[in-house]
Design a protein that fits this description.
Bound molecules: coenzyme A
Strand content: 25-35%
Distance between the termini: 41 Å
Radius of gyration: 15 Å
Largest sheet: 8 strands, mixed
Length: 164
Amino acid sequence: MAAALVAEKPEHADTIEGVLDRAFGPGRLAKTSERVRERGAVAEPSLSRVALSDAGEVVGVCRIWSIEAGVAAFFLGPLAVDPSARNAGVGAELVRACVAACRASGGAAIIAVGAASFFAPLGFSVAPAGRVFLPGPVDPTRLLWVELRPGALDAVRGEVRAPK
Ligand SMILES: CC(C)(COP(=O)(O)OP(=O)(O)OC[C@H]1O[C@@H](n2cnc3c(N)ncnc32)[C@H](O)[C@@H]1OP(=O)(O)O)[C@@H](O)C(=O)NCCC(=O)NCCS
């Protein structure tokens, strides 16, 4: 399925909500990642990406947030692709495009919560135990990060919080 990736725009907001509801169901706002966003992470629509179908409908989304974790960094999520568009590489392309945008913006690192099997081919690895904390419980095998410039991960540590 062909999908064009573009930066998130205000007019995508309603259809993004539909994609997220279908992907995660009613429990999605209970996730620990949501606490990060609630506690002042700053939305970065210009670094976030949506996937558009040929008809121009949003069929996928990957959002990026500015955060602080010892140093200015980014938080990735939610990532979701509509069931109708899955297994065609859209999810991976969304993450690749967000990583490239974050790297071009001069950021240090991206932190995400997700399946290492999905994110490892995209450059992410499991953060060492005890290095970074989210405001709530997270399976440590799902707490991932990717370095955006050489050596930048050395400074990433502590609680993920709102940027200064
Ligand atoms: C995860 C998701 C975004 C992948 O989107 P997609 O467009 O189908 O992804 P791609 O086509 O790029 O990649 C598909 C691969 O991801 C794998 N995958 C899908 N969901 C996965 C998951 N939850 N954990 C691990 N791997 C997963 C598929 O098995 C497939 O693997 P393969 O290529 O070896 O066959 C999509 O399945 C989705 O929206 N799921 C529900 C929401 C969710 O779990 N989001 C991720 C939170 S980290």
